[in-house]
């Protein structure tokens, strides 16, 4: 059964004096930063590892696929675990195991060993986004969720900025094994702060009554916390709209994350010591895109747009901003090419902040983690398929142009499908 998302709502609660919810957002931001540093390290060290281990383009795609397949499985599992056990404990276990898995890379020296280590990392890192989206739904009213999502999601870009600035230097100083260990330790340092500072809003002494009322102002705040079966969720068009949107667009982000260092090395002649600056510029673009993409839909809503129209307008703008990436292979100047990739990365993150937020717009809180997990699983499956295509294309042609053209078209296709499946973005009642 569905009801219109624009159904009459209670009076808007004024902004509170308390700001503790932004402490929670900061924790989510740092966790996402660490998450992306752990996953990006392989791409940054790929030129060095390729010389030491001797893998081909196709074998490198197999290692990436090991991560993405286990990530897909983990997303399904964590969605259920988070909805059942709660955000606090689930997120803590996820951080512990993915940090441990990151350090385990230092103990392997073969294609099979890296594939196994990446599989463990993917399985445990899958907890990050379902838990973070669930935390945002618990701690923020609807009108702030896209902005809060954009802020924590920008941690992916900050991690991607810090990683190329730090990891190549660490690897040159301490070897690639030392780089994996040092980055893995960061997650262990986050755990105590999370366990100390996070809890349900109504149980946190630092949350003032006016802030709690502000957080709980939306009608879904009083929904019962009941278990929702995946089979039931798959019966809703809203689930499929989110899942297909992720299937079409997540693979493009994976392409940027794992293959851009190789693209710069193979087509622009940039070695590992000089990879940092181009990648830093690209992910600084992406950071701005993540925050502004979440902000713009909130700004549209403040101007009177419905959540349906505001989210879709923001998503369409982002989809259009990706299109110029299709011409990047025709550009000879390095920094113009970097700017085009940066614009596409920024647009992806703005798109991501909004499509994630549509889940909490369309589903009750007790189903958010599971729906995000399903969508993330579809995105990872798409990533596996695209990664396989990338390996074959590069092994046979050595040319990236067709891959960038696919990336240019993917978001408009995803937007068209999303809009067709949920033209009014109806609210699901489970």
From TrEMBL:
Q: Which UniProt keywords apply?
A: Membrane, Transmembrane, Transmembrane helix
* Taxonomic superkingdom: Bacteria
Q: Where is this gene product found? A: Membrane
Report membrane topology: Multi-pass membrane protein
Which residues belong to any copy of the Major facilitator superfamily (MFS) profile domain? 24-426
For this protein, the record's Pfam families field holds:
MFS_1 (PF07690)
Matching InterPro entries: MFS, MFS_dom, MFS_Na/Anion_cotransporter, MFS_trans_sf
Coiled coil stretches, renumbered: none
Transmembrane regions:
20-37, 58-82, 94-117, 151-172, 178-198, 240-260, 280-301, 313-331, 368-394, 400-422
Q: What is this protein called?
A: MFS transporter
């Amino acid at each position: 059964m569905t009801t219109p998302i624009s159904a009459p709502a209670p009076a808007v609660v004024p902004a509170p004096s308390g700001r503790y919810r932004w402490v929670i957002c900061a924790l989510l931001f740092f966790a996402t930063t660490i998450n992306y540093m752990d996953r990006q390290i392989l791409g940054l060290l790929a030129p060095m590892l390729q010389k030491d281990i001797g893998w081909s383009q196709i074998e490198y795609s197999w290692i990436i696929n090991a991560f993405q397949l286990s990530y897909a499985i983990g997303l399904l599992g964590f969605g259920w675990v988070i909805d059942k056990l709660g955000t606090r404990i689930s997120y803590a276990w996820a951080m512990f195991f993915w940090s441990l898995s990151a350090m385990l890379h230092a103990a392997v020296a073969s294609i099979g060993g890296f594939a196994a280590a990446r599989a463990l990392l993917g399985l445990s890192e899958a907890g990050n986004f379902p838990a973070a989206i669930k935390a945002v739904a618990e701690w923020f009213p609807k009108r702030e969720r896209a902005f809060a999502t954009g802020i924590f999601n920008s941690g992916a870009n900050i991690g991607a900025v810090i990683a190329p600035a730090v990891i190549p230097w660490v690897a040159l100083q301490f070897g690639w094994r030392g780089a994996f260990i040092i980055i893995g330790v960061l997650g262990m340092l986050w755990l105590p702060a999370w366990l100390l500072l996070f809890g349900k809003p109504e149980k946190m002494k630092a949350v003032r009554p006016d802030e709690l009322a502000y957080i709980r102002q939306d009608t879904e705040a009083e929904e019962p916390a009941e278990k929702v079966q995946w089979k039931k969720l798959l019966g809703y068009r809203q689930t499929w709209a989110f899942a297909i949107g992720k299937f079409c667009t997540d693979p493009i982000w994976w392409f940027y994350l794992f293959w851009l260092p190789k693209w710069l090395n193979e087509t622009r002649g940039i070695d590992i010591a000089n990879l940092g600056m181009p990648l830093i510029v690209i992910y600084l673009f992406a950071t701005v895109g993540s925050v502004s993409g979440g902000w713009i839909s909130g700004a549209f809503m403040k101007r009177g747009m419905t959540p349906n129209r505001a989210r879709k307008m923001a998503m369409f703008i982002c989809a259009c901003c990706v299109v110029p990436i299709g011409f990047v292979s025709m550009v000879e100047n390095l920094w113009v090419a970097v700017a085009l990739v940066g614009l596409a990365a920024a647009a992806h993150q703005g798109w991501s902040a909004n499509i994630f937020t549509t889940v909490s717009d369309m589903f009750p809180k007790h189903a958010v983690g599971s729906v995000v997990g399903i969508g993330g699983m579809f995105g990872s499956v798409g990533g596996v398929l695209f990664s396989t295509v990338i390996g074959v294309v590069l092994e046979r042609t050595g040319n990236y142009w067709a891959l960038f053209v696919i990336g240019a078209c993917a978001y408009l296709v995803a937007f068209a499908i999303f809009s067709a499946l949920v033209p009014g973005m109806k609210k699901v009642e489970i």
